[in-house]
Amino acid sequence: MSRNLKILNIIDIPWHSALAAYAFDQSAALAGRGHGVFFAAPENSAAAAFARTNGFPLTLIPSRNNYLLLGALLRLKKLVETESIDVVNTHTGKAQSMARLLSLISSRPFALIRTKADARRPRNGFALGKAALVIAGSGHIKKMCTIAGVNDDQIEVIYQGIIPPPDQPRATSHKPLTVGILGRLDPVKGHTCFIAAAALILKKAPDTEFLIAGREENVKYAALETLAKKLGIAGKVKYLGHVPDKFAFIRSCDIGAITSLSSEAVSRAALEWLASGKPLVASSVGGLPEFAAAEWLVPPQDPAMLAEKILALLESPEKRLAAGADGRAKILRDFSPAAFAERTETAFRKAVNSAQ
């Protein structure tokens, strides 16, 4: 029987992003299969909070904007040697460089894994080239890595798992029908395209309502509201702000939309819409074509095509039910937490064996 591994995660970003969410799910999956999980993260970061909440040993390191790393490297060196760490798993480029330096000063050899679940283009240099394995959260990320020069056989695509909520299809005959968008208010998320499409849709389906959920970040809702007023649809667009229960919001909608202009290397929102059995219309950027059905993909920043696809669903209860059922079936088949955990453990053991 294979022994359990000891795994150190280095994650130096402060916020809870798609990258962090993948790292947390990965750690929980490995811990659930009996492996020892350690964290190195900045104080007051989402990663530090996650480690403390879940009882994972935590070593504090500087934030990504602090380049005084010597003290942190010495603390991590001691941790690797005293705890007999088998794998150092990094989630950002800077963390990868830190791990590479750590490998040069540590008397304890370890496998170096780079887990990549963000849209930043990698560079195959001093650090990434020394990784025993690169775990990519989507095929889109794998493609970015191969373009950067990482060998294809060095990369493993492992899709994040998700637990679907109970199957509670909404009645198809109720009025008004609602179209929702879930995500932070940021230019890259394409909310202006969503509102422009809403204006086109309302010309043919005037009873439709449009719901926007998510925190204000680099876009204020007031700017979106001004656009809606300019287009004469202000009363049909409602902003709910941050919603603590994402699945409850999704359940309140008939159709989901992801209108991102770029990014979406790993789209948690796409998984949530599909897992909920809701039809999803999404822009064909990043990893979204790997999740959303081809029939319901649209070019980015194309409100006319977005409106056309949404109208096709609004006008047909049968299409809505079929698209929602197909999406949920895809999640149950390809994105189960059990499959994610098994593939993750296999990849980590592979990296350890190759590093020996």
Can you describe this structure?
This protein is an alpha/beta fold. The protein has two domains: 6-160 and 336-355, Rossmann fold (3-Layer(aba) Sandwich), CATH 3.40.50; 178-334, Glycogen Phosphorylase B (Rossmann fold). Helix content is 42%, strand content 16%. It has a seven-stranded parallel sheet with strand order 3-2-1-4-5-6-7, with helices on both faces. It is elongated and about 70 Å long. The mean pLDDT is 94.
Summarize it.
The chain has 356 residues and is of the alpha/beta class. The protein has 13 helices and 13 strands.
Number of helical elements: 13
Taking all Cα atoms into account, the compactness measure Rg is: 22 Å
Task: Quickly give the structural class.
Answer: alpha/beta
For the record, give the distance between the C-alpha atoms at the N and C termini, rounded to a whole number.
Answer: 18 Å
Mean pLDDT: 94
Q: Largest sheet, if any?
A: 7 strands, parallel
The number of strands is 13
Shape: elongated
Please report the first level of CATH classification, the CATH class of the largest domain.
Alpha Beta
How do the SSEs run, as a string of H and E?
EHEHEHEHEEHEEHEHEHEHEHEHHH
Which sequence of strands runs across the widest sheet?
Answer: 3-2-1-4-5-6-7
What's the CATH H-level superfamily name of the largest domain?
Glycogen Phosphorylase B
| The CATH topology of the largest domain | Rossmann fold
Q: Indicate the low-confidence ranges by residue numbers.
A: none
The second-level CATH architecture of the largest domain is 3-Layer(aba) Sandwich
